[in-house]
Write a structure and sequence with these properties.
The structure is a single chain. This protein is an alpha+beta fold. Helix content is 29%, strand content 25%. It is built from 4 helices and 5 strands; from the N terminus they run βββαβαααβ. The strands form 2 sheets. The protein has a 3-stranded antiparallel beta sheet with strand order 1-2-3, with no helix packed on it. Strands 4-5 form a two-stranded antiparallel ribbon. Helix 3 crosses helix 4. The longest helix has 19 residues.
Length: 124
């Protein structure tokens, strides 16, 4: 029910990443294959149901990082863990610093900034 193409700027031609669009519509224009709970995007081939994985959390786990793709674009997982560990047990500060670092890197690398969401959950 949809198609994939880049945005089109009348002066510059195709710009940005390829996106999924509804036929003859200007939505959803989403640049990914999955979008949790996005039922509109689900009608044009974007997967609205998240993949689920189970992990056993043991006493060695201190925290987990939940973050949007805007964080992971320029920050590797291990680097995010090391950055957040500096501020542990203050998980709010850890999440803020991770988001700040992601924003800084986006501004250095790109003209636009993707969504940036970071949550750090403390286990103990």
């Amino acid at each position: 029910g949809g198609f994939v193409e880049q945005l089109f700027d009348p002066e510059d031609g195709p710009v940005g990443p390829y996106r999924v669009w509804a036929v003859r519509q200007q939505y959803p224009g989403i640049a990914m294959s999955g979008s949790i709970g996005d039922l509109v995007a689900g009608t044009v081939g974007v997967i609205p149901v998240p993949e689920q994985v189970t992990h056993v959390v043991d006493d060695t786990w201190q925290f987990i990082i939940l973050a949007s793709d805007g964080v992971w674009e320029f920050i590797e997982s291990q680097e995010a863990v090391e950055l957040c560990a500096k501020y542990f047990p203050n998980v709010q500060e850890a999440a803020d610093k991770l988001a700040d670092e992601a924003l800084k890197r986006w501004r250095h690398e790109e003209e636009v900034v993707d969504d940036i969401t970071a949550v750090v959950v403390r286990f103990r």
